[in-house]
What does this fold into?
Amino acid sequence: MRKNIVLTGVGGQGTVLASKLIAAAFMKKGLPVMSAETIGMAQRGGCVFSHLRVGEGISSPMIAKGEADLILGFEPAETVRMLPYLKEGGQVVTAIRPVMPVTAALAGGNYRGEDMLEYLREKVPNLLTVDTDAAIQELGNPKVVNVVLLGAAVRSGALGLTVEDLQEIIRVRLPEKLHEINFRALEYTGV
It folds into this structure.
């Protein structure tokens, strides 16, 4: 199996942690994983992305444009920004909640997340949107949106992992006091 996954969002959304959980789950299955991340802007609310490549024969962690099987977007504009990486027939899973990236704020533009979502709906045949505001309201914790999105990616079939794979890694990687809320986030379906 080979997978190319791009995760994208803004600093503070848990993009890097989600990438590390996915990588650990694939490594637990015995698959080679390579990743590259931008983390410098994470502390400042700037653009954050991770390239994650899984499978034999990978020589670089960077995904070429047009080669991503899955884009996991934590913010609509950042999802749009990474679309050139999506391969034909690839899957996009994105949060619908806009978070104005620092780059948009500095440009002084009129950023509307709905415009980004409309663009995604027009351009991406395999699009799954997640109402992360509803998830936050139901789960009572905004810090688990990244795991909500992981659960949605599992259900899309494009991630190549199961809920159980991720639960196992959460047990190992996160403190025990965070297990229950993250398990609920992983299984959140919006119903």
Remarks:
- The CA atoms of residues 124 and 166 lie 26 Å apart.
- The chain is about 40% helix and 20% strand.
- The chain has a mean pLDDT of 91.
